[in-house]
Amino acid sequence: ITEGETEEEGSGEAGDKLVIGFSQVGAESEWRTANTKSIQDAIKEAGHELKFSDGQQKQENQIKAIRSFITQKVDAIVFSPVVETGFETVMQEAKDAGIPIFLADRAVDAEDDSLWVTFLGSDFVEEGRKAGQWLIDEMADQEGPINIVELQGTVGSAPAIDRKEGFEEIIGSDDKFEIIKSQTGDFTRAKGKEVMEAFLKSDGGENIDVLYAHNDDMAIGAIQAIEEYGLKPAEDITIIGVDAVKGAFEAMADGKMNVTIECNPLFGPQLVDLIEQHFAGVELEKRIAVEESMYTMDQAAELLPTREY
Ligand code: AHR
User: Where in this chain does the record put each Periplasmic binding protein domain (predicted)?
Assistant: First the structure.
């Protein structure tokens, strides 16, 4: 409870104003910016108090933030873990303090699922599968070998691990597809561009048929690198991204990107609803998925004005 508030305001009973600590991953992508805003707005609009911490993509910052939320005796913690492992100790500390944790967007890889109330987020493995299936369908008539370069998300993060797994599961069914290079671009445009430049230099752009980027920001950075190299993105190299942010729709409408798999960041209202249900005594499912779709180049111009993020 922050100074000046009464015991009742932060006591965490059903219908009360709650004090909610939110430890966010960072501000690495368009997706993340939209997600932060959605959660912040939903907490405030519901009349709760928000304590926000930007982890700047660093695990130690998130651990510090959670410890600070515990010291401040918040009612609930919303937590989007930058990587899957290494958070058990601090989550146990929150549990011992009687503060429920709601995992948002990213999961942790921990045995004891009593450390969190529920995990609300996308099915990243399914997103990887959708990307792989789109490629298989798109290249059904094309002879192999089809050389793919992959820009992975943050090393050790749930979306990087799962999107790789889902994609490989699907393309593994046809040996004409080969991932010839795979490296992290840390989910940022700048890194996506830098790593794509290195791929083009070492493999020769003409040898690369497909780019699979674990998010749109890295795909957009890579598109710049491909253009600077003198090739046409989406024509010479097929470009697959994930997120469905506005930047990807703009790139697709310009004919520079082929497809983006949706990962919906706008789940703030659903998250706040779940927190309130928990405090009203409702038993929540451990895993709640966000529904999403997939968008191709030919839909981009029409849908661009309707995109909210
Ligand atoms: O965890 C979701 C991922 O994190 C998004 O796909 C990516 O853009 C973000 O940085």
Answer: 20-261
Q: What is the pLDDT of residues 96-149, one digit of tens each?
A: 999 999 999 999 999 999 999 999 999 999 999 999 999 999 999 999 999 999
Query: Both tokens of residue 164?
Result: 């790789």
Whole-angstrom CA distances from 286 to 113, 120, 158, 207, 253 are: 8, 8, 16, 45, 39
Token representation of residue 41: 């707005």
CB 279 within 8 A of CB 13: yes
Instruction: Tell whether ligand 1 has an atom less than 6 A from the beta carbon of residue 267.
Output: no
35, 243, 245, 290: which to mutate for ligand 1, most atoms within 8 A of CB? 243
For the sheet containing 76-79, what is the strand order? 49-54, 19-24, 76-79, 101-104, 118-121, 287-289
